[in-house]
C-alpha cells in the first residue's frame, strides 16, 4: 500500500517539475542505454546458449576460438584432422557423442531457378552425427544421419538453414527432395534445420549443412578426409551423465596418446609425431558453441563495459546533483511533514521511491536507445558477423537491476541530505534553509569533483587508445602500402595441378602487366595480410636451440616480388626468373632471421634446411637479405619475426596464388580491370577477394579501430555529462548566493571581482577532481596495456592534453553562471526572496 502511494506521489512531483524530470531521465537514459547495448552484445557473444537440447552438457574439444582456422602441415590439437577426429570419436569413454564441423564461406549456390541468382553463402560441413549429438529435430524433411557421411562423394545431400529456407525458398516444402547446385555439383535437399538454429559457430549464420564426406565438392581441389596433416575440424561433444570437464580432458588426452601409437600415428612422419608428442588437448564448456569472433572481441567488449560503467556513474552524479538542488527547495515540505508526525524512515522510503522511479524511466528509454547502440557495436565486428542479439531474460534482468541500482546510487545522498535539516531553522527561515553559508551545497560540489575525476579517467583511456591506433596505422611497414592491390586465387579448385598452377602464375603476370592502371605485378603463396601463413622449424649449421627457437615464417614468391611490393634488398639479390625448378634452391632472408640465426653476420652463400626428413637433402642457399617487413604473420602489433622467402617456381606444391599489383593511381580504380583480366585468363578460376592492401591492413586492426572509435565516443559523452553537471551546480550555487553577491556589489565589488569569485570556485572543484583523477587514471591504464602501441600507460602528452581539454571545457561551462552572477543588479538582489 505504501509503495503504491509513494509511486503516485512521485508521479505528481515529476509532473510539477517537468524540466527537472526530463533532464534527469534523459541523462540516465544515456548512461543506461550505453550499458545495456554493450551488455546485449556481450550476452549474445558470451552468455547465450545454443538453442539445442540440454546445451549445458556440451563441451568443445580443442580451442573454441579457432572455429574457422585451417592448417596444412604439422597436426594441431586446437583444431583437428579427420583421422584424429575419428580416433577421438571412436575410442573415448566420456562422450555420448562427438561431432565435427568446418565452415566454408564461399559456397556458390545455384538453386536451379532464374528467380534466385547465384550467390556465395556460408555453409557448414558436418559429421553425420552432428544433429543427433546436438539433439535437434527438423523443421521439414529430415536431418543428416551417420549413413550420409560415409565414403567421399557418396552422398550429395544438403540440409538448409531455416532462415535461408524462408528467405530464398519462401518456406516452400516443394524444395525437399529437389536438387540445388553447390559449387557446380548437384546436391539433393533432404530437410531444413529447426527455426532459431544458425549453427554452432557464434557470429556466423549457416545457410546450409552438408556431410563431411562431400568436402572435395565443397572445397574443390582438396581431399582432406584421409590426410592426417590437414587440421580443419572443430569438435563438440556431449558428456556422459556424471562426467566432469577434468575427467573428459584426461580421457581425451589418453586417447590422443594412444592414437599416436596406432595406425593414425604410423601414417604421420616421425617429425610430426615428435612435434605433437607433448601436446595437450583442452576440453572446455561448449554450451555457447565455438567462435572466432569471441576470441577476438571478448576483451575489447569487457573494456568497453568498464568504460560505459564509468559513464553511467558520471550520469548518476549529475542526477544526484539535480536531486540535491531540488531537495533544498523541498526542505520546508519535508520539515512540515516531520513536524506533523512523519518518521524519517518513511520519508526516506518516499524519496528513494522517487529516485528509483526516475532510474526505471531512464532505463526504459535507455533500452530504446540501446537498440541503436547495439547496431553501432555490431558494426565493430564487420559486415559478415551475425550475433544472437534478441533480448532475453539476462538483458531484461540486467536493465531492470541496473535501473534500480542507479536509482539507489544517485538517490541515497540527496535523500539523506534532505532529512538532515533542523526543524526549527527550516520553519523559522525558509530562505536560509535553502542555502546555508556553512554548507553551500557541499555534497554537490564534492560530487562534481568526483565527476571530473571519472571523466578524466574515461578521457585518458580513450585518448590513449586513439593515439595508439594512430601510431599503429602510421608505423613503418617496411614498404609503402598506398598503391598495392592483393588478389587471392584458388587454382586447385578449378582443377589445376602444381605444374599448371606455376604456368598460370606466369601467364597472369604477363596479362596483368599491360592492364591500364597497373604498373607492375608479381605473385606469392601467402601474400600480405591475406590471412594465410606458413612456418617451419629449420636447421641452421652452427645454431642450436629448441624447436620453438628454430621456427621461421616462410613464403613462396615470384620474380620481382621485392621490387613490386617495395621491400628493399639490403644485400645480394631477390628472387628472379633464373630461379627455376632445375636451378639451385635459393632463399632470401629478412633482417630478423639474420639477427636470430646468424648473429647479425652476413649470411649470403650460407645454407639451411627445413627440419623434415624429406627436406634434409634439399638445402637452401641464401642469395639475399631483405629489410624487415610487417605482414599478417608477424602481426601489425608485434615485432617482425624471422622469415625466409623461397622461389614460387621451386616449390613442389604452392597451394594457391596471391597476386600483388602495384597501381599507378588509387588501387580501387584498378580492381575491375584486374578482375577482368583474371576471368579472361580462366573464367572458372575462383577469386577469393581483390582488395587494396590498405583495406586488408585496416581489417587486421579491426578490434583496435572499433575499440578506439567507441571509447572516443563514450569519452566525449563523459565530458559532456561532466560539463552539464558543473554548469548545473554552479548555476544553483549562484542562484543560492544571489543576496550575498548583491551585498558584495552594494559594498563596492566590481563585476570582474564577482566573475573571478565564481570561476575560482568552479575551477577549484576541477583542480580537486584532477588531483583525484590523475593517479586513478595512471593506475588503471594497466588494463589497456595489451591494446597500446608505441605508447606507455603513463604517456605525459596524453595526460596533459586531457587535463587541458577538461580545464578549458570546465571553464567554459562555469563561465555562463559566472557571467550571470556578474550581471546581478545589487538592488534587486537585496530584495531577493
Number of helices: 26
Contiguous low-pLDDT stretches (5 residues minimum) are: 423-427, 430-441
**In percent, how much strand structure appears in the residues?**
15-25%
Q: How many beta-strand segments?
A: 23
Euclidean distance between termini CA atoms: 39 Å
Using only CA atoms, what is the Rg? 34 Å
- Biggest β-sheet: strands ordered side by side in the sheet: 3-4-9-6-8-7
Estimated structural class: alpha+beta
Mean pLDDT: 86
Largest sheet: 6 strands, mixed, barrel
Helix share bin:
40-55%
What is the overall silhouette? globular
Key phrases:
833 residues, alpha+beta, 6-stranded mixed β-barrel, 26 helices, globular
Overall description:
Mean pLDDT is 86; it is low at 423-427 and 430-441. The strands form 4 sheets. The protein has a 6-stranded mixed β-barrel. It is globular, with a radius of gyration of 34 Å. A hairpin with an 8-residue loop joins strand 3 and strand 4 (119-126). Helix 2 (18-47) runs antiparallel to helix 13 (393-419) and helix 12 (344-378) packs antiparallel against helix 13. It is α+β, with helices and mostly antiparallel strands and 833 residues long. It is built from 26 helices and 23 strands.
Helix and strand arrangement:
Elements: H1 2-16, H2 18-47, E1 58-61, E2 71-72, H3 82-91, E3 95-110, E4 119-126, H4 130-134, E5 140-141, E6 157-160, H5 162-169, E7 179-182, E8 185-192, E9 208-211, H6 215-218, E10 230-231, E11 234-239, H7 245-259, H8 263-266, H9 270-276, E12 283-285, H10 292-329, H11 331-339, H12 344-378, H13 393-419, H14 423-428, H15 430-434, H16 442-474, E13 484-489, H17 498-513, E14 518-524, E15 534-539, E16 551-557, H18 561-565, E17 569-572, E18 586-590, H19 591-598, E19 607-610, E20 620-626, E21 643-647, E22 657-663, H20 667-681, E23 687-692, H21 693-700, H22 702-736, H23 738-746, H24 751-780, H25 796-822, H26 826-830
Parallel strand pairs: 4-9, 6-8, 16-21, 18-20
Antiparallel strand pairs: 1-11, 1-12, 2-10, 3-4, 3-7, 3-11, 5-8, 6-9, 7-8, 13-22, 13-23, 14-22, 15-16, 15-19, 17-20, 18-21, 19-20
Helix pairs in contact: 1-12, 2-10, 2-12, 2-13, 3-7, 10-13, 10-16, 10-22, 12-13, 16-22, 16-24, 16-25, 17-20, 22-25, 24-25
Amino acid at each position: 500500500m505504501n509503495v503504491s502511494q509513494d509511486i503516485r506521489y512521485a508521479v505528481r512531483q515529476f509532473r510539477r517539475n517537468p524540466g527537472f524530470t526530463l533532464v534527469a531521465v534523459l541523462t540516465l537514459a544515456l548512461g543506461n542505454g550505453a550499458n545495456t547495448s554493450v551488455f546485449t552484445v556481450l550476452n549474445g557473444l558470451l552468455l547465450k546458449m545454443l538453442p539445442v537440447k540440454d546445451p549445458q552438457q556440451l563441451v568443445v574439444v580443442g580451442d573454441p576460438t579457432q572455429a574457422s582456422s585451417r592448417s596444412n602441415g604439422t597436426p594441431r590439437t586446437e583444431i583437428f584432422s579427420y583421422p584424429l577426429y575419428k580416433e577421438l570419436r571412436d575410442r573415448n569413454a566420456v562422450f555420448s557423442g562427438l561431432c565435427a564441423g568446418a565452415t566454408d564461406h564461399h559456397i556458390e549456390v545455384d538453386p536451379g531457378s532464374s528467380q534466385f541468382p547465384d550467390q556465395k553463402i556460408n555453409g557448414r560441413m558436418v559429421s553425420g552425427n552432428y544433429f543427433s549429438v546436438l539433439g535437434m529435430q527438423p523443421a521439414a524433411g529430415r536431418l543428416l544421419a551417420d549413413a550420409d557421411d560415409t565414403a567421399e562423394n557418396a552422398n550429395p545431400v544438403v540440409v538448409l538453414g531455416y532462415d535461408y529456407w524462408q528467405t530464398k525458398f519462401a518456406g516452400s516444402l516443394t524444395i525437399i527432395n529437389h536438387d540445388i547446385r553447390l559449387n557446380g555439383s548437384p546436391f539433393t535437399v533432404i530437410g531444413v534445420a529447426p527455426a532459431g538454429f544458425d549453427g554452432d559457430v557464434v557470429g556466423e549464420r549457416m545457410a546450409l549443412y552438408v556431410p563431411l564426406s562431400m568436402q572435395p565438392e565443397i572445397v574443390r581441389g582438396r581431399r582432406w578426409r584421409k590426410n592426417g596433416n590437414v587440421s580443419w575440424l572443430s569438435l563438440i561433444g556431449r558428456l556422459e551423465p556424471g562426467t566432469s570437464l577434468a575427467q573428459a580432458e584426461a580421457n581425451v588426452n589418453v586417447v590422443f596418446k594412444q592414437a599416436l601409437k596406432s595406425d593414425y600415428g604410423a601414417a604421420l612422419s616421425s617429425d610430426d609425431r615428435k612435434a605433437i608428442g607433448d601436446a595437450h588437448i583442452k576440453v572446455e564448456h561448449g554450451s555457447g558453441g565455438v567462435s572466432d569472433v569471441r576470441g577476438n572481441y571478448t576483451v575489447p567488449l569487457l573494456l568497453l563495459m568498464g568504460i560505459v560503467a564509468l559513464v553511467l556513474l558520471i550520469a548518476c552524479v549529475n542526477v544526484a546533483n539535480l536531486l540535491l538542488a531540488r531537495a533544498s527547495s523541498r526542505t520546508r515540505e519535508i520539515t512540515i511533514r516531520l513536524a506533523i508526525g512523519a518518521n524519517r524512515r518513511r520519508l526516506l522510503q518516499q524519496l528513494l521511491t522517487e529516485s528509483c522511479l526516475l532510474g526505471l524511466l531512464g532505463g526504459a528509454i535507455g533500452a530504446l536507445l540501446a537498440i541503436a547502440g547495439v547496431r553501432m557495436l555490431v558494426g565493430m565486428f564487420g559486415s559478415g558477423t551475425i550475433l544472437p542479439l534478441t533480448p532475453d531474460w539476462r538483458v531484461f534482468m540486467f536493465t531492470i537491476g541496473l535501473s534500480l541500482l542507479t536509482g539507489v546510487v544517485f538517490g541515497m545522498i540527496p535523500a539523506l541530505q534532505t532529512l538532515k535539516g533542523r526543524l526549527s531553522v527550516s520553519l523559522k527561515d525558509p530562505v536560509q534553509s535553502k542555502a546555508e553559508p556553512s554548507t553551500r551545497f557541499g555534497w554537490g560540489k564534492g560530487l562534481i569533483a568526483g565527476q571530473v575525476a571519472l571523466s578524466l579517467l574515461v578521457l585518458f583511456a580513450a585518448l590513449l587508445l586513439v593515439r595508439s591506433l594512430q601510431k599503429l596505422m602510421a608505423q613503418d611497414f617496411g614498404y609503402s602500402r598506398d598503391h598495392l592491390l592483393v588478389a587471392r586465387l584458388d587454382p586447385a579448385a578449378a582443377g589445376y595441378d602444381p605444374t599448371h598452377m606455376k604456368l598460370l602464375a606466369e601467364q597472369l603476370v604477363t596479362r596483368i602487366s599491360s592492364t591500364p592502371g597497373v604498373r607492375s605485378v608479381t605473385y606469392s603463396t601467402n601474400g600480405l595480410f591475406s590471412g594465410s601463413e606458413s612456418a617451419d622449424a629449420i636447421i641452421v649449421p652452427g645454431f642450436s636451440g629448441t624447436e620453438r627457437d628454430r621456427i621461421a615464417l616462410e613464403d613462396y614468391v615470384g620474380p620481382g616480388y621485392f621490387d613490386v611490393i617495395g621491400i628493399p634488398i639490403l644485400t645480394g639479390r631477390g628472387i628472379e626468373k633464373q630461379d627455376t625448378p632445375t636451378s639451385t634452391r635459393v632463399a632470401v632472408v629478412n633482417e630478423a632471421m639474420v639477427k636470430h640465426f646468424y648473429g647479425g653476420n652476413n649470411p649470403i652463400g650460407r645454407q639451411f634446411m627445413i627440419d623434415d626428413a624429406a627436406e634434409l637433402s634439399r638445402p637452401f642457399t641464401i642469395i639475399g637479405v631483405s629489410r624487415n617487413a610487417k605482414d599478417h604473420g608477424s602481426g601489425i602489433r608485434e615485432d617482425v619475426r624471422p622469415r625466409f622467402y623461397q622461389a614460387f617456381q621451386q616449390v613442389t606444391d604452392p597451394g594457391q596464388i596471391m597476386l600483388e599489383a602495384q597501381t599507378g593511381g588509387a588501387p580501387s580504380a584498378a580492381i575491375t580491370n584486374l578482375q577482368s583480366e583474371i576471368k579472361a585468363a580462366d573464367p572458372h578460376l575462383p577469386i577469393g577477394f581483390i582488395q587494396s592492401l590498405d583495406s586488408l591492413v585496416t581489417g587486421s586492426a579491426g578490434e583496435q579501430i572499433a575499440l578506439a572509435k567507441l571509447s572516443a565516443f563514450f569519452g566525449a559523452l563523459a565530458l559532456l555529462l561532466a560539463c552539464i553537471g558543473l554548469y548545473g551546480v554552479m548555476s544553483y550555487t549562484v542562484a543560492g548566493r544571489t543576496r550575498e553577491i548583491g551585498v558584495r556589489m552594494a559594498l563596492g565589488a566590481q563585476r570582474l571581482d564577482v566573475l573571478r569569485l565564481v570561476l575560482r570556485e568552479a575551477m577549484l572543484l576541477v583542480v580537486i577532481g584532477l588531483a583525484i583523477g590523475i593517479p586513478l587514471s595512471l593506475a588503471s591504464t594497466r588494463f589497456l596495456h595489451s591494446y597500446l602501441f608505441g605508447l606507455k600507460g603513463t604517456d605525459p602528452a596524453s595526460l596533459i592534453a586531457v587535463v587541458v581539454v577538461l580545464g578549458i571545457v570546465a571553464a567554459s561551462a562555469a563561465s555562463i553562471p559566472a557571467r550571470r552572477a556578474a550581471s546581478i543588479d545589487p538592488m534587486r538582489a537585496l530584495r531577493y526572496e
